[in-house]
Amino acid sequence: MSVVAGSGFFQRLRSGLQKTRQSLVGSLEAVFSRKRLDIDTLEKLEEALILADLGTRTVDRVLQEVNARVKHKTIEAGDGLRDGVIDILRDIMTEAMPAAETIGQPQPWVLMMVGVNGVGKTTTLGKLAHHFHQQGGKSLLVAADTFRAAAIEQAAIWGERAGVDVIKGQPGGDAAAVAFDAVQAACARHADRVLIDTAGRLHTKAPLMEELKKMQRVLGRALPDAPHDIWLVLDATTGQNGIAQVRQFHESLGLTGLVLTKLDGTSKGGIVINVAQEFQLPIRYIGVGEGVDDLRPFDVAEFTAALFDKA
Ligand SMILES: Nc1nc2c(ncn2[C@@H]2O[C@H](COP(=O)(O)OP(=O)(O)OP(=O)(O)O)[C@@H](O)[C@H]2O)c(=O)[nH]1
Ligand SMILES: [Mg+2]
Fold this sequence. Notes:
Layout: H1 8-16, H2 18-32, H3 39-51, H4 56-71, H5 79-95, E1 109-114, H6 121-135, E2 139-143, H7 149-162, E3 165-168, H8 175-188, E4 193-197, H9 206-222, E5 229-235, H10 241-253, E6 257-261, H11 271-279, E7 283-287, E8 295-297, H12 300-308
Parallel strand pairs: 1-4, 1-5, 2-3, 2-4, 5-6, 6-7
Antiparallel strand pairs: 7-8
Bound molecules: guanosine-5'-triphosphate and magnesium ion (MG).
Guanosine-5'-triphosphate binds at residues 115, 117-123, 145, 151, 200, 261-262, 264-265, 287-290, 294.
């Protein structure tokens, strides 16, 4: 994807990331403006990266690579250091992204969206349904969050907004059965994509995680290889706690990707780089607002440009 600095989407991403830019990039620029690349400057660099919630392993890696470049004299203070740090951060994110693009394949493609309460699963699926609807093909939104009656209604509203059909369960019903029926209906209707919303649940509650595992198993009976993707939605404002969530869901379900939401409401957008470094799981989409157009496919070059480029 090319980065078009003047485009509406890019500007929305840029303004969504404003708080992170102010905290991360603001304090980094102070380091880059130092005349000498000495111990003191490196300490200030470490401080700036930690404050931006990059996590200790990511910070260690950046510092190690900067130190190696200092040793080999391939990096200098000022713009040299700036370009070097941006390069390293870009590399960390790129390593986590898969080479081949498989989103939306095969037909029907079945996606389970999981995550703890209130992170933005239903909203993200609504935005995604809209995004896919615009791309063409037939999508189904599946309200398999039978935990709360309001959740089913919320999915129905998003389905209407996005112009896609919604398959609903009954409040208190068997979520896995709803998902099973939806995949069968998708096959019968020749739908291209099945987007399954699940209940928000505390990742520490084992029975609830068991319910998600059951859905995963049951989907495989409705269609071999389904679900093709299981994405965890992470609220970027949660900072380091998000790392524990990824670990738990990944161990239980075998995640295939991540979505980071609410990047517009936080100065801790550095978590994007942190989770990429920790898990090597592709970040598929990022949410930068509550509107239907506030979801972006994650693109390393675009994200880096939105954070670091001087407009
Ligand atoms: N600012 C902002 N708000 C968001 C974003 N994504 C979701 N939200 C808001 O977060 C709140 C929770 O979103 P939901 O989609 O209901 O979250 P959920 O994970 O489905 O919640 P449960 O079903 O209760 O677990 C809503 O008010 C959304 O509008 C985002 O990218 N930016
Ligand atoms: Mg929900």
